């Protein structure tokens, strides 16, 4: 959440009046984000600590809502650049942006159903508005990792870039938007009227998620524990290979 809070502070800075675009990306090789802190979830579930689970979830949707709404700055375009893996909450963060750019071979998915839960920090809200709620439910219930190419065909990914060309694709997109920016911003404003994303919707879904998490049984928690081991191993490998100025996705 540290990167998210820092980003929100930057957008909310009154001095940053000339911001037109901001990009969510990672300097960690082959990793956009491995998702929420499953180990922390398990600790809160074991302690039956609903308040702690709820606080964590609200912190997540605060960041996602800020990305989507740009803190009510309608002239800002949010862009997610996915290079590598975006899992669970990491994928939800990417979906919150107005434009999702991904490199071929990148993998994105929502594995929560594998431990008898669902992604409760924006997936249904943001994915549903991209591909419809029926298709969103199919993606969520599959629990699988999708290639960027597959998600592009579904309409989840907006721009598909060649491997290693993601950053160039972002600049290319910005140049294209600048040519028709007035019309594009007006279209987005119209979309927000016809398909509004409210903070209340995100919060109510999060409450459903918290209650569902507290109903998980021993078998579900064992599966989550296995995923924690994989997540931790991937995170350690990714950070070890990251440049010195990389942040943890």
Overview of the molecule:
The structure is a single chain. With 249 residues, the chain is of the alpha/beta class. The protein has one domain: Alpha-Beta Complex (2-enoyl-CoA Hydratase, Chain A, domain 1). 56% of the residues lie in helices and 12% in strands. The protein has eleven helices and eight strands. It has helices at 2-12, 38-46, 50-69, 89-96, 123-131, 133-142, 148-154, 166-179, 181-194, 199-213, 218-240; strands at residues 21-24, 31-33, 77-82, 85-87, 99-103, 107-109, 145-147, 159-161. Strands 1-3-5-8 form a four-stranded parallel beta sheet, with helices on both faces. It has a four-stranded mixed beta sheet with strand order 2-4-6-7. Helix 3 runs antiparallel to helix 10 (199-213) and helix 5 (123-131) packs across helix 6. The longest helix is centred in the last third of the chain and has 23 residues, at 218-240. The chain is globular, with a radius of gyration of 18 Å. It starts with a helix and ends in a 9-residue tail after the last helix. Residues 239-249 have low confidence and may be disordered.
């Amino acid at each position: 959440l540290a990167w998210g809070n820092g980003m929100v502070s930057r957008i909310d800075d009154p001095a940053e009046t000339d911001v037109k675009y901001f990009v969510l990306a990672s300097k960690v090789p082959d990793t956009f984000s491995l998702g929420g802190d499953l180990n922390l979830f398990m600790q809160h579930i074991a302690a039956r600590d609903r308040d702690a689970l709820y606080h964590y979830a609200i912190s997540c949707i605060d960041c996602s809502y800020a990305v989507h709404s740009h803190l009510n700055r309608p002239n800002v375009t949010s862009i997610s650049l996915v290079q590598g893996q975006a899992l669970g909450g990491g994928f939800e963060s990417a979906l919150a942006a107005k434009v999702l750019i991904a490199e071929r071979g990148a993998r994105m998915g929502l594995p929560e159903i594998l431990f008898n839960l669902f992604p409760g920090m924006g997936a249904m809200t943001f994915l549903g508005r991209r591909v419809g709620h029926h298709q969103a439910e199919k993606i969520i219930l599959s629990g699988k990792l999708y290639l960027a190419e597959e998600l592009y065909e579904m309409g989840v990914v907006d721009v598909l870039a060649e491997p290693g060309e993601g950053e160039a694709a972002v600049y290319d997109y910005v140049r294209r938007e600048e040519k028709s920016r007035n019309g594009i911003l007006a279209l987005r404003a119209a979309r927000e009227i016809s398909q509004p994303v409210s903070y209340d919707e995100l919060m109510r879904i999060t409450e459903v998620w918290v209650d569902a998490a507290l109903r998980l049984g021993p078998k579900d928690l064992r599966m989550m524990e296995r995923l924690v081991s994989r997540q931790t191993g991937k995170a350690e490998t990714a950070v070890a290979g990251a440049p010195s100025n990389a942040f943890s996705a």
